[in-house]
Amino acid sequence: MMDPNQAAPPSQEDAVTRTGPAGPLDEDQKVLMDEVAVGHDRPLELTIAKDDEVGIYDATVGGQQVGGLTFNDDGDRVVLVAVSILPQFRNHGAATTLIRHVLDDLRTRGKTATVLCPIVRTFIDMHPEYQDVVDREHPGVVKVAPR
Q1: In 10 A of CB 101, how many CB atoms?
Q2: How far is 24 from 31, CA to CA, in rounded Å?
Q3: In this predicted structure, what is the pLDDT of residue 23?
Q4: Could you tell me the CA-to-CA distances from 106 to 4, 13, 29 in Å, in that order?
Q5: What is the dihedral of CA 144, 124, 110, 137, to 10 degrees?
């Protein structure tokens, strides 16, 4: 069950009319959205570890943390909150690799996702084969407005 102090996922109507769950996208989000929309032939080889206590999938390269995807576990559903990648590792496929790993992990574990992160939403829009992982009752962001 979600923490009662956390905001409820936006309704489908809210998600469609705003640029992101928290309003306008910042420059970092735009860069990562462009990265996941393009795809990469030779993405970075990441090591990804899930930390349930903190609620993050940590991505590392050669032992150095390069980014992560924060989440809240809600039983059969996982709320995907935000992706971040250090600037020097952007445009090398790190965000794409991380998101793909997380969605594959959720699918393998029989869980669905509520997507609050516009970067993850962009990835799913570009890769509709992951649409089955999105929770039908609580999809979160269902459309990201053009940048």
Answers
A1: 17
A2: 14
A3: 61
A4: 23, 25, 23
A5: 30
Q: How many residues are there in the chain? A: 147
**Do β-strands 56-61 and 77-85 pair in parallel, antiparallel, or remain unpaired?**
unpaired
For 7, other C-beta atoms within 10 Å of its C-beta total 10
Mean pLDDT calculated for residue range 24-46: 75
Q: Which residue type is seen at 142? A: V
Are the C-beta atoms of residues 54 and 71 closer than 8 Å to each other?
A: no
Token pair of 80, please?
């995907």
Q: Buried b / exposed e across 46-63, counting CB within 10 Å, b at 16+?
A: bebeeeeeebbbbbebee
- Kind of pairing, strands 112-115 and 77-85? parallel
How far CA 127 is from CA of 57, 66, 106, in Å, comes to 20, 23, 15
Q: What percent of the chain has pLDDT over 70?
A: 78
pTM: 0.77
